[in-house]
Amino acid sequence: MIAMRSIRLTKATALVLIGYSLVAMASCSWIWQAKMSMQQRPAMRVVDVARQIEMMNREVAAYVEALTRQESLTQAAPLWTRIQARQHTIQGLLRQFVDLESNFKVIERQIEHLRHVIEHEKQHIDPQALQDMVEWIQEDMEIFASDVHRSLQEIIAEQTNSLHRYGSAVAWLSVGVFLTGFVLLLLFILLSKQNRQLVKLASEDGLTGLHNRRSAMLQGQLLCAIAQRSRQPITLALLDVDHFKQVNDVYGHPAGDAALKMLAQLLKAYARRTTDVLARIGGEEFMLLMPDTTEEVAEQLCKVLLNALAESKINDELAFHVTASMGMACSEQGLLSFDELYRQADKALYQAKAQGRNQLVVYPS
Questions:
Q1: Which of 277, 176, 180, 171 is nearest to 224 (CA)?
Q2: Active site residues
Q3: In which element (H, E) is residue 359 found?
Q4: Position 138 in a domain
Q5: Which pLDDT does position 1 carry in this prediction?
Q6: Given 153, 175, 197, which residue is the final one in a domain?
């Protein structure tokens, strides 16, 4: 129960951390896109405005110079068209900058006034006054260019601070994702360990380390099905410790547990094939399932095992001996199901007990 609760808690924690990782990665992606977009926006627009102002300044000067050389308005018209196009370009670039846009409108009105004077009052205006008007416009454009440059510096400073904050956010989120991944790895290892422990608890006898009854029945059904398909012999032996209740009553339950452990060690020592299934299926009852083993070979092994058990003392502190009764059944061509084989071995075990114990009976006897 504790193990199951631990696994559920670990899984819930893992799901929370996975959710955090997904959110963190999405946030990193959004911040990075915002960062790249910011690098491409206002600063570049202001730089373009500065270039356009410089070019328009030259074009206004060229337009006025062309008219002062007594050229016709028709000949100067292309220059004016370029100035107007430049104005529209600058207006488009200044849409996000309200202060600069209002300042530029003042310059536009001055240029439009200059054009009106040249086209309609050229004959009545003093050339020096015209020159002063042009210089005034150029001076305002230089001031405007300075304002543009100052705005550019402010935007760059603001972007630098924002990019620094975004970079710090990405760094911290990256660290968080890394730590989350590390924690998830630890949780995965913990879950794997707990899963192995659950599998062990579900299939292993806690005292002897052998298969428990549930696992033994599943293994027996599987191995008998394989024997039926391959027509190979399979032998089942059931072992029951003689007078085990007396052992517990006389020597105590710890001594009885020690006897069961000793018997399990003997089974492991004599049935060493990886295909053999060793199990404790009851209090003092054990099972030995031997695939691809004939009755003759299995009978010899069981007799040797019984003799070794009768001659072995429990341990250095407990010098008494125990014996066991065994019943064995063999399906020479693997035609019997596990349930049938188990019933035959159980009948043989019952007969071994009825005949005086400490002996092996092979079905049919």
A1: 277
A2: 284
A3: none
A4: yes
A5: 46
A6: 175
